[in-house]
Design goal:
about 290 residues, elongated, FAD/NAD(P)-binding domain, alpha/beta
């Protein structure tokens, strides 16, 4: 949107190709990557500059950008830090994080049986991808029931059609070489949404590999190297409803503000933020227009 308005835009991309979660988090069967390549070519034809493999924060700071003449900065870095379960055995060699697995599943040797811990869309994507990469049996373990799964309903149904199995009301206690030690759970009779463990129901679910999909948070590359940029308790950037951060001239939207949400939600908000950036620059630097 800003390029169409005549702005000189530079995209700083931490990876070798642009696309973010669209390229490195959404499986090919859902989004063919040639579509992103077409978008990249359109951006280049519009005069947008792209700097791949460039990390903003520890290498180039936001102050460096302002010093070099950039009038406004948009942060759309997403959430790439997997959230650990903090249970014993999480550092073992057959344990992986879904957000990392989906970046390049071909480099992983998962064996024939995989258990995925989590119940969101990322867990579903990892499960369906693993089956497409040759894993014979994929099981999703969740400490609540199917009706409580945060994943989209249609994604759950597609996973069932693909052959993904589900183990509900089981909470992981420890990761072992041979699998996952878990305990059965149930909904509390006294508190509607509370899940309680059932004493004496511990058991082991054997598996070759474990993929943890317990959500993810933002990396601190930019925040830790920038004064005046505030975050909430989850490490997400604080903004108003137009994407204005607590640092003048810096805007943000998408998962780095809201946490992991859908692409549709991120795009919708980012359009509003682009308009806010345009208004800010026009009011701050009227001599440019």
């Amino acid at each position: 949107m800003l390029a169409r308005k005549g702005y000189d835009i530079t995209i700083f991309e931490a990876h070798n190709k642009i696309g973010g979660v669209l390229r490195y988090g959404i499986p090919d069967y859902r989004l063919p990557k040639n579509i992103l390549d077409l978008i990249k070519n359109k951006l280049l034809n519009m005069g947008v500059k792209i700097r791949p493999n460039t990390l903003i924060g520890p290498v180039i700071t936001l102050e460096d950008l302002f010093s070099d003449g950039y009038k406004a900065i948009f942060i759309g870095t997403g959430v790439w830090n997997p959230k650990p379960l903090r249970i014993k055995g999480e550092s073992l060699g057959h344990v992986h994080y879904a957000i990392d697995y989906l970046k390049n599943p071909d480099v992983y040797d998962l064996g024939q049986r995989v258990v995925i811990i989590g119940a969101g869309n990322t867990a579903i994507d990892a499960a369906r991808t693993a089956l497409r990469k040759g894993v014979r049996e994929v099981i999703i373990m969740y400490r609540r029931g199917e009706e409580d799964m945060p994943a989209n309903r249609e994604e759950i149904e597609y996973a069932k059609i693909d052959g993904v199995k589900f183990e509900f009301f089981k909470s992981p206690l420890e990761i072992l070489d041979e699998g996952i030690k878990y305990i059965k759970t149930e909904k509390s009779n006294n508190e509607k949404d509370r899940i309680v463990e059932i004493p004496g129901t511990e058991a082991i679910l054997e598996t070759d590999s474990i993929i943890i999909a317990a959500s993810q948070g933002p990396k601190a590359n930019i925040v830790s190297n920038t004064e005046g940029l505030k975050i909430n308790n989850s490490g997400l950037l604080l903004t108003d409803n137009l994407g204005r951060t607590t640092k003048e001239g810096v805007f943000a939207s998408g998962d780095v503000v809201t946490g992991a949400r859908t692409v549709v939600e991120a795009v919708s908000l980012s359009k509003k933020v682009a308009e806010a950036i345009d208004q800010y620059v026009r009011e701050k630097y009227p001599e440019l227009f």
